């Protein structure tokens, strides 16, 4: 949204017109590839962000050239997303008892008292003003007990 506000009113109107004219077609194209409405929306959003960055190169809002640019862009994004999602292997724990599931001992270290103390030491090393960054008061975290 902030990126959009840096454009002139004329450019914003052009982009809004492009969005309204092509959104449904792009969602359909992305959904055909991803088979997920949520992922299709993500792909279309990314395509429109790219279109916004190249708004000066897009001709008429309803031209075939603009439509092809958007379709090719959303198709490439959706295919990339599809391949990334294929690398994610779901783990099915149904039918397994708790003892048969192996837990990586590395993860146990993260909940240990030594790790908590190590994090507190790092936070104590920060300047007082840096402990309040990002809307989080890290000073209160230092006084917490687990």
Q: Can you tell me about this structure?
A:
This protein is mainly α. 64% of the residues lie in helices and 0% in strands. The chain contains 7 helices and no strands. It has helices at residues 2-5, 9-34, 37-53, 64-86, 105-110, 113-124, 138-142. Helix 2 (9-34) packs antiparallel against helix 3. The protein is flat, with a radius of gyration of 24 Å. The model has no long low-confidence stretch (mean pLDDT 76).
Q: Summary?
A:
The chain is mainly alpha-helical.
Percent strand: under 5%
**Given the C-alpha coordinates, what overall shape results?**
flat
Low-confidence stretches: none
**Class based on secondary structure composition and strand pairing:** mainly alpha
The largest β sheet comes out as: none
Written as H for each helix and E for each strand, in order along the chain, the element string is HHHHHHH
Q: Calculate Rg over CA atoms.
A: 24 Å
The helix count comes to 7
Indicate the percent of residues in helices.
55-70%
Overall average residue pLDDT: 76
Amino-to-carboxy terminus distance: 40 Å
Number of strands: 0
Q: What's the helix and strand layout?
A:
Blueprint: H1 2-5, H2 9-34, H3 37-53, H4 64-86, H5 105-110, H6 113-124, H7 138-142
Helix pairs in contact: 2-3, 2-4, 3-4
Descriptive terms for the model:
146 residues; mainly alpha; 0% strand
């Amino acid at each position: 949204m902030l990126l959009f506000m840096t454009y002139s009113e004329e450019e914003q109107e052009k982009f809004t017109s492009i969005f309204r004219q092509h959104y449904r077609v792009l969602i359909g194209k992305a959904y055909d590839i991803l088979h997920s409405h949520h992922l299709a929306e993500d792909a279309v959003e990314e395509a429109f962000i790219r279109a916004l960055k190249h708004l000066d190169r897009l001709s008429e809002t309803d031209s075939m050239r603009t439509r092809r640019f958007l379709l090719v862009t959303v198709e490439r994004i959706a295919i990339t997303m599809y391949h990334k999602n294929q690398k994610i292997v779901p783990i099915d724990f149904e039918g397994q008892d708790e003892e048969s599931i192996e837990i990586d001992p590395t993860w146990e270290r993260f909940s240990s008292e030594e790790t908590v103390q190590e994090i507190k030491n790092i936070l104590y090393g920060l300047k007082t003003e840096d402990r309040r960054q990002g809307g989080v008061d890290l000073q209160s975290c230092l006084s917490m007990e687990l």
